[in-house]
Predict the 3D structure of the following.
Amino acid sequence: MKKLRMCQKTACGLAILGMAVLSGPYWFTTAAQSGHKLLGGPRGVVRSAKNIKPLTGTGFQGGEPLEGIGVQLISLKTAIRTTVYSDEEGRYEFPKLDSGVYTLRITRPLDYRPYQRESIPIDGATQLQDIVLERVSKNEFLPPTSEILPQLTDAEWMLNLPGTGQEKRVFNISCGFGCHSYQQVFSNRYDEESWRLIIDRMLSGNSTLIWVNPPSNTAEAREQIPMRSAPAVEILTKWLATVRGPEAKDDSPLYVLPRSKGAATRMIVTEYELPRTLLVPHDVHGDSKGNIWYTAHRSPYVGALNPRTGEVKEYRLPDDPAMLPGTHRVWVDQKDYVWFSENWRSNMVGLDPETGEFKVFPLEPRGFSNFAMDSKGLAYETLDDGVVQIDSKTGKIVKKFTLNRVRSTYDSIVSHDDRYWSGGTTSGNMLGLLDTQTGEWWETEIPTLNANPSRGGFDRDGNAWFGGRGGMLLKLDTKTRRVTEYWPPIPYVTFYEAMPDKNGEVWAAALGSGRFLRFNPRTERWIQYMLPEPYSHDRRTWIDNSTDPVTVWYVDHNGYLVRLQPLE
Amino acid sequence: MYLKKLKKIILCVGVILALYGGQGIGRKAIAQSSSSTASAPSESGAAALRLQRSVQIYNYKTTAPSGPQRGEEIYFIKCWYCHNKYTREEPRGRPAPPMQNIYKRPMLATTGKPVNDETLAEKINKGGPAMPAYRYALSDADMADLISYIKSDKCCWEGEEPPHNPWYRY
């Protein structure tokens, strides 16, 4: 019997040894994981193809690991797209993904030939074959082909088009408000008269694009706004008729921005499909169950994404045949009741997600759009040349504060202790700050004339942050009432928003850069996270501060919902 | 007796080794083959970019590669901002005429010509006093898809029922 037990032990030992020997490479692979709690899924290496004929002198020899390459797996079952980025050794590692079949591809290949493989079975920490990429050019400039042009960011379009500094700045300020991409402009050709008609209509549209409200944005009023004045329109028209006129050609080699490096490669980007297209989605907000709510700017449909499955539950707001449907802001209150602004209709709309019932509060005077809500359920907005408090139980304005120079702001933000309101003038360089308890208010000028403060949020120290459509982040120190401008390290970008997280770092998509920026005010360090698309058309960031590191959400204007998970 | 049991145990070990070892090799082989033999070979060129959203958006192909569905996307981007039912006033006068049922009208309001594919394309290409000329902005294929949409019963987009996303899986 003893012999039998010994034999059994020996056999077990042999079996384990055999497993270790025969499956050694698989185990080794598992042991070589990064160990990061967000990772542990499929992994591999990206490197460049070797040139058959070695180059002499300067040139690309090839065969080196490639850093900052976006590697994407698309689930056949859910269509969820997960993207990670190769490190300086060319290595990449996905989070744990559901077992299934995926498509593997490289995002925005730009200087490399497109790479895509279908029907990849994924099961746990699948080791994928090396991705070997071939360069499209022997130097750092890229051919302006029909494959590469649609991969350019707006900032890269601006880099590569001819024009003076004034022409490009006027275009940036006038057309970079976040209503559309520059790609949508530069993919076209029109004659001068047609450009004039388009510009006239866009700049005189009373901020509504389709003129649903009586125009207050008269020619006289526009003359007060430098970038919408007649000289600005003339500069824009002449420039666009030159660089995007009937004879304009894209025949010059292209220069593009560098890829992510170092810390910027340590990010997981997940893209979720929405049930409908042409929605022009606008804002997001998370609820306590982990669902992410979004608004659609040209449609009565709103929805809530379940990030665990990729499934969206749609809701349709009540019809009003006389007015354009569409929602702007969404805000989930502490009871998980969901609030929307129907900005075209100037309605404040509440939704009970459990019953699907809406309540609609029409607000006068018109203009209900970028509201904030405090912990007591009071909504803040600038209406009727002042800051108003709206009781969300009744939809009635219960208090009004009149400021002096800051009569209307794009956004309304409320501090974490409910005490302070802040907002900035849509076109101009003013920020307002209001103590809602005492009624005391301050108005502060921003040094840059066309700073155009847009949306933002308060940090935990009580400072107000805004994205500047003039191209910078803005901090209003509520103690000193001093404004600081922070300019990003990317040219030709604008900001629709800036949102501080629980650690005091500020997240903001640089519009037109295809990059999400993370700014640390203490060190003034910027991290540029390159996104899978040339878009970063974010108008509302929602940060899940319950995770560590934080999780950042936005919905792209181009129709998909995005989750950003930094690894540190 | 013990020898027989030992033989059975060794046989079992051999089976375990063969099975597990084989599985290990097999899994690795599958993992490798997942990107070599079991899957389609790497694609290149424009075909390999069809999942890059920006390429589809650039070419108005997020909903369909061609036909009236693609025409709806072009209509939304190029036409709807003026030719919609909500606009009350335009910078240069009255709102642009709606496009619904335009083929049932006797003539084009601005040119007085009968409504057909050629006259409509001509109007879109040449524009007018308040309308840009699209002759340089739309290709022949764009125009064909746009007109096929305007002719269809689905025209015209007003936001109430945006098209379903062909990529959405639920």
